[in-house]
């Protein structure tokens, strides 16, 4: 019999077609706790003023370093910011998002090709042309994201809340300066980590729905059939979610996305390529 794997899948989609499938384990077993943590994810934007227990940072970074990494090159580093004033300064650069100040820990993930360059020089190579290839830049970004997502899952498994912060790319140059980031490194995104203030609805009390699975899952070949219907169905699901969150007057997702990509207002993004090149990445 086909059944819903869990109320978590229902909550993720609010679309029965997407959430009706058998759990691929012994039916008498409950949902593995790792899956339960992953499916329960919500971004947390309200934190309690509590310090993290000793060993938390190290546990999170061990999880980060346990992720896969292209060719074992390990092309990322992370800066842990806990000092309140320093954290406040980085919050200011990241669209002044106050939850960054509230969170006891803010991590800045830094793609890093510098270590490879240093080693190349140490071993007597004059040039490192491969480092100038765009693929190395992509690799360091992908590795950073894999590491960060492992932190997210580890933190949530410990009962902590997280929120990624891409907004620091609006001031990428200032972030490099504030964190003393040397050439061939930069801050691609941050992550706030702390105890969710569950009294506050910004702590992410509800699971935010995603596009129906059939919209993003293609079998064997790309297929955009049904896209309009899928987005219309998602518009409804997300609309209901926002109403439950008392966030009224939001545009439907399709319209929001259309407006977002058509917008002339790019903020600090207009400088991003310049900042990356200034940091010594060649993107060839
Ligand atoms: C790389 C990245 C950057 C993000 N930057 C921000 C941010 O600056 N501020 C914010 O409030 N949320 C940010 N988010 C969180 C997304 O808005 C959030 O994941 C999305 O709305 C889905 O909600 P959920 O995580 O609660 O499921 C970011 C997420 C990612 C993956």
From TrEMBL:
- Segments of skewed composition (Polar residues): 18-30
GO molecular function: any one? Answer: oxidoreductase activity
**This chain belongs to which protein, by name?**
Nitroreductase
Enumerate the UniProt keywords alphabetically: Flavoprotein, FMN, Oxidoreductase
Does the keyword field hold Flavoprotein?
Answer: yes
**Pfam family membership, one:** Nitroreductase
Name the InterPro entries for this protein. Answer: Flavin_OxRdtase_Frp, Nitroreductase, Nitroreductase-like
Classification via Gene3D superfamilies: NADH Oxidase (3.40.109.10)
Give the family per the record: Belongs to the flavin oxidoreductase frp family.
Q: Which SUPFAM superfamilies match?
A: FMN-dependent nitroreductase-like
Q: Which domain of life is it from?
A: Eukaryota
Q: Where is this region: Disordered?
A: 1-30
Q: Which organism's genome codes for this protein? A: Aspergillus kawachii
What residues does the Nitroreductase domain cover?
A: 38-195
